[in-house]
Write a structure and sequence with these properties.
The chain has 277 residues and is α/β, with parallel strands linked by helices. The chain has a single domain (2-275), classed as TIM Barrel, CATH 3.20.20. The protein has nine helices and ten strands. An eight-stranded parallel beta sheet has the order 1-2-3-4-5-6-7-8. A two-stranded antiparallel sheet has the order 9-10. Bound molecules: zinc ion.
């Protein structure tokens, strides 16, 4: 039995410019038909559980729909991509959803100093970083208030700030998942020391570097994920969906030199322990 430890089932529409002509397979559309199909296709491939992450406040109204679904472990939070918006307002929207139904985790939250930074001047870059850090800190505090783990996005070049903030906020009290991990090895041991799990989706990163990180991550701290539906499989070029966690998990089992069925059982145990379900 497999679990996709990070997917956006209720996602914002994929922008038209991200859809090339040479893409094969289905184009994700955020309606209930598509979402239902995504879940049932996954189930057919023994992906029985999905950790569903809603991290854009525009999608918060759909949180109530998600919590009704079976075997979906719900996580909600505000992404660093929204950091320049009205933070007190977004936080109050988040708190309202939490009040209706306490999630299994707060996420995805964190830092990214590359995505969306291309056209900013130095001053704007610094403002953006500061705003992302404020939003990150505030949400770690919320996770601690309700005693659930955090799901962290750690973009390239954010390593030091991530570790600094997690330590300063004593995030180890709730622990968490470093998702879609693709930064450098330097961060790994410090985060393992404070009890964090690493979640890998090998298809969107450099394989050699990832292999080294997987090597030093103990089995009982590994999770696997697709981050659906935002990434593309290279060949055939198509959107990666929760069912593809089978490919990802089996491939990482090979890196780790462990039998696939032993590995998938371990991933399930790890996810259950962290997200308490
Ligand atoms: Zn994600």
């Amino acid at each position: 039995m497999y679990i996709d430890c990070h997917a956006h089932l209720f996602f914002s529409s994929i922008p038209a410019e991200a859809i090339d002509e040479d893409i094969t397979g289905v184009i994700p559309i955020p309606n209930m038909d598509f979402i239902g199909k995504m879940i049932s296709n996954a189930k057919e491939k023994s992906v029985n559980y999905i950790i569903g992450v809603i991290s854009n406040p525009n999608d918060f109204p759909r949180y109530q729909e998600q919590v009704e679904l079976e075997n979906i472990i719900h996580v909600i939070g505000i992404s660093r991509g929204n950091a320049l918006e009205d933070q007190p307002h977004m936080i109050s929207l988040l708190e309202k959803e939490i009040e209706r139904k306490v999630p299994h985790g707060i996420g995805e939250i964190g830092l990214d100093y590359a995505y969306g930074f291309d056209n900013l001047n130095e001053h704007e870059k610094n403002t953006m970083k500061k705003k992302q850090q404020e939003l990150f800190v505030r949400q770690i505090q919320i996770a601690k208030e309700i005693d659930v783990p955090i799901v962290v996005h750690a973009g390239y070049g954010t390593d030091k700030d991530i570790v600094k903030i997690l330590k300063q906020e004593q995030a180890q009290d709730v622990g968490g998942q470093i998702h879609g991990y693709m930064s450098n090895e330097g961060l790994v041991s410090e985060l393992l020391d404070i009890g964090f799990y690493f979640s890998f989706g090998y298809l969107h990163t450099k394989e050699e570097e990832l292999k080294r990180i997987i090597e030093i991550t103990p089995l009982e701290r590994i999770l696997t994920e697709t981050d659906s539906p935002y990434h593309l499989l290279e060949s055939p070029k198509r959107f990666i969906l929760p069912e593809d966690v089978v490919l990802i998990t089996d491939k990482i089992a090979i890196f780790k030199e462990i039998k696939p069925e032993v590995f998938t059982n371990q991933i399930m145990r790890n996810a259950r322990e962290l997200f308490r379900f």
